[in-house]
Automatic annotation (TrEMBL):
Keywords: ATP-binding, Nucleotide-binding, Transport. SUPFAM superfamilies: P-loop containing nucleoside triphosphate hydrolases (SSF52540). InterPro entries: AAA+_ATPase, ABC_transporter-like_ATP-bd, ABC_transporter-like_CS, P-loop_NTPase, PstB-like. It comes from Paenibacillus lacisoli. This is Phosphate ABC transporter ATP-binding protein PstB. Residues 5-246 form the ABC transporter domain. The gene is pstB. GO terms for molecular function: ATP binding. PANTHER family: ABC TRANSPORTER I FAMILY MEMBER 17. It comes from the Bacteria. NCBIfam families: 3a0107s01c2.
C-alpha cells in the first residue's frame, strides 16, 4: 500500500504545552489507520493537524511537514476550505445542522456552487447510500435531522462529509456516544468506505481498533511509541509500553 499522508518531524505547542513531539508517520491510502493511547496523549491533536483544525486555536505553534498526496498542507498557498473539502471530519457527538436530512447533505455541495436540483438529488442519494442510511430515510428526506436516532445522525454526518467528495475521512471517536448496535453499523460502514477513502480514526476502544483498522499507531505523552499493522500491534507489540497498554495494564 502507498503512503498518502506523510508526516515529518511534526511538533505542536499549545502555548507552553508541547503536545506533539517530533511525529514522523506515513499513513496509507485506502486503508484504515487507528490512533490509540491514553487520554491526553495527542491523538486528537494529530488528527486535527491533518485538516488544519488546530489553526483556529489561539497560541498554537506548529513546525514540521504534513504532506497529502505530495502537497505540503501547511504551505502558505494552501486554501483551507479546499483542504477541508478533501479532508472531511466526523466528531464524537453527531452534529447535524438544524435543517432537513436532505439539506444537511446538500449543504456542502451548495456551498461549492452546485444549484441544479437534479444534481443535488443525485449527490444526496449517492452520499446517503454510501453512508448506509438511504433505505432508512429515503421517504422522509424533508424531516429534521434531529428526528433521527444518534446512530442515524452520525451516519448523516458521514454522508454530509462524503457529499463534497473527500479523499480522507477523519473520525474522532465517532462511535463514543453510540450504543453497541449503532457502533457495529458504523464499523461495518467504515470497512466499506475504506475501498474509496483513506480513513484515520481516533478510538479509546482497543477492541474497535483491533476489529476495524489495518494499521494502528500507539501514542504516549505526545510521542509515537509504535506504528504497525494492526494484527502485529495486538499480537506481537515490539515496545513493552505498547504491550502494557494493549493488555490493559494502564490507560
Ligand atoms: N485547545 C487546546 N488548548 C490547549 N491545550 C489543549 C487543547 N487541546 C488539547 N490540549 C492538550 O493537549 C494534550 C493532547 O490533547 P489531545 O486532545 O490531543 O489528546 P487525546 O489523546 O486526543 O486525548 P483524549 O483521548 O482524552 O481525547 C492534552 O494535554 C490536552 O490537555
Amino acid at each position: 500500500m502507498q503512503a498518502f499522508i506523510d508526516i515529518q518531524k511534526l511538533n505542536l505547542h499549545y502555548r507552553t504545552l508541547h503536545a506533539l513531539k517530533d511525529i514522523t508517520l506515513q499513513i496509507q491510502d485506502k486503508a484504515i489507520t487507528a490512533f490509540i493511547g491514553p487520554s491526553g496523549c495527542g491523538k486528537s491533536t494529530l488528527l486535527r493537524s491533518l485538516n488544519r483544525m488546530n489553526d483556529r486555536i489561539p497560541g498554537t505553534r506548529i513546525e514540521g511537514r504534513v504532506a497529502i498526496g505530495g502537497t505540503d498542507i501547511y504551505s502558505p498557498d494552501i486554501h483551507i476550505e479546499t483542504l477541508r473539502q478533501k479532508v472531511g471530519m466526523v466528531f464524537q457527538s453527531p452534529n447535524p445542522l438544524p435543517k432537513s436530512i436532505y439539506d444537511n447533505v446538500a449543504y456542502g455541495p451548495r456551498l461549492h456552487g452546485i444549484r441544479s436540483k437534479a444534481k443535488l438529488d443525485e449527490i444526496v442519494e449517492r452520499s446517503l447510500r454510501s453512508a448506509a442510511l438511504w433505505d432508512e430515510v429515503k421517504d422522509v428526506l424533508k424531516r429534521s435531522a434531529f428526528s433521527l436516532s444518534g446512530g442515524q445522525q452520525q451516519r448523516l454526518c458521514i454522508a454530509r462529509s462524503l457529499a463534497v467528495d473527500p479523499q480522507i475521512l477523519l473520525m474522532d471517536e465517532a462511535t463514543a456516544s453510540l450504543d453497541p448496535k449503532s457502533t457495529a453499523k458504523i464499523e461495518e460502514l467504515v470497512q466499506e468506505l475504506k475501498n474509496r477513502y483513506t480513513i484515520v480514526m481516533v478510538t479509546h476502544n482497543m477492541q474497535q481498533a483491533a476489529r476495524v483498522s489495518d494499521r494502528t499507531v500507539f501514542f504516549l505523552n505526545g510521542e509515537i511509541v509504535e506504528a504497525a499493522d494492526t494484527r502485529y500491534m495486538f499480537s506481537e507489540p515490539q515496545d513493552s509500553r505498547t504491550q502494557d497498554y494493549v493488555q490493559g495494564r494502564f490507560g
